[in-house]
Specification:
The chain has one domain: Rossmann fold, CATH 3.40.50. The termini are far apart. The relative contact order is 0.13. Helix 1 packs across helix 8. It has 10 helices and 7 strands. Strands 3-2-1-4-5-6-7 form a 7-stranded parallel sheet, sandwiched between helices. By secondary structure, it is of the alpha/beta class. The radius of gyration is 18 Å and the shape is globular.
């Protein structure tokens, strides 16, 4: 059996990119993975990938270990759609073991080197799907996980929480995601449910590769100089976390994905050891709640 055989996961925003890579690895390790996203039909978006295609690949990759993918068209800015997603998971599976909050709306002018006042207020969509959506998904997930006394909620974030990256809204969003995951951990600790954040470095998603090809000169140099990983590298780390019997000892912290991979003895799909960007991009703030006096008393 795979390390996650019998486990149930929801990976938000997994039509493509990091979400797709995580979904594939979780299914390969035996999990039943609910693949969510807005792209249903090929051509609906300028980059390849649909929820159905990712789910089908999950089922193919996971068949040896009992893993599978289930496609759910879901706009994570629509609270009713998110509620329906988790109701479906509960009705069909009766449990939920892993939530990966990956969905994040990136504004079209993200890489434009302008001041926040020169960009439209519509860019606040990054708060709607990226921050608020994390809370809503976790709210539903916790209602399943807390009663069963187990579960893991992972937020996908990055060094933008401590290092200027792409602008005010993007950096504020990532900072909020990190703090939210930390406080989730405190409130979920009595229920044996873990919450933590992964800081991604340069991940060679479809969008990242397109941006590098078209606008690499506008991207933050400390990012473009990093060693890039495939989208499955963070998936390997999430799978290891979900299978870790001591996961509660990690709850509440921010982790650099590359460093966790080395802790767990993991490489990228081509065998590469991904280097940490801590020296050039910054240090995580939050430590595991098991290691600190988080109430300040």
């Amino acid at each position: 059996m795979g390390s996650l055989t019998g486990k149930v996961a929801v990976v938000t925003g997994s039509s493509r990119g990091i979400g797709r890579g995580i979904a594939l690895v979780l299914a390969e390790q035996g999990a039943t993975v609910y693949v969510t996203g807005r792209t249903v039909n090929p051509g609906d978006y300028y980059l390849p990938g649909t929820v159905g295609e990712t789910a089908a690949e999950c089922s193919e990759r996971g068949k040896a270990e009992g893993g599978s993918g289930i496609a759910v068209a879901c706009d994570h800015g629509d609270d009713a759609a998110v509620a329906a997603l988790f109701a479906k998971v509960k009705a069909e599976q009766g449990r939920l073991d892993i939530l990966v909050n990956n969905a994040f709306t990136l504004s079209d002018d993200l890489l434009e080197p302008k001041g926040f006042w020169e960009k439209p207020l519509s860019n606040l969509e990054m708060w709607d799907v990226g921050v608020r959506s994390n809370y809503v998904a976790a709210w539903h997930a916790a209602q399943i996980m807390a009663p069963q006394k187990s579960g893991l909620i992972v937020a996908i974030s990055g060094f933008a929480a401590v290092t200027y990256t792409y602008g005010t809204i993007f950096g504020t969003s990532k900072s909020a995601v990190d703090r939210m995951a930390r406080d989730f951990a405190i409130e979920l600790e009595p229920h044996n449910v873990a919450s933590l954040t992964l800081w991604q470095g340069l991940t060679l998603t479809e969008k990242a590769q397109d941006n590098l090809a078209k606008m690499g000169d506008k991207m933050t140099k400390s990012i473009t100089s990093m060693q890039g990983s495939t989208v499955e590298h963070p998936g390997r780390v999430v799978a290891a976390l979900a299978a870790d019997p001591d996961i509660m000892k990690r709850s509440g912290a921010e982790y650099i994905t590359a460093e966790l991979a080395q802790d767990y003895g993991l490489t990228d799909v081509d065998g590469a050891v991904i280097a940490s960007a801590r020296a050039s991009r910054g240090d995580p703030i939050w430590k595991p709640i098991a290691e600190v006096n988080y109430r300040g008393a």
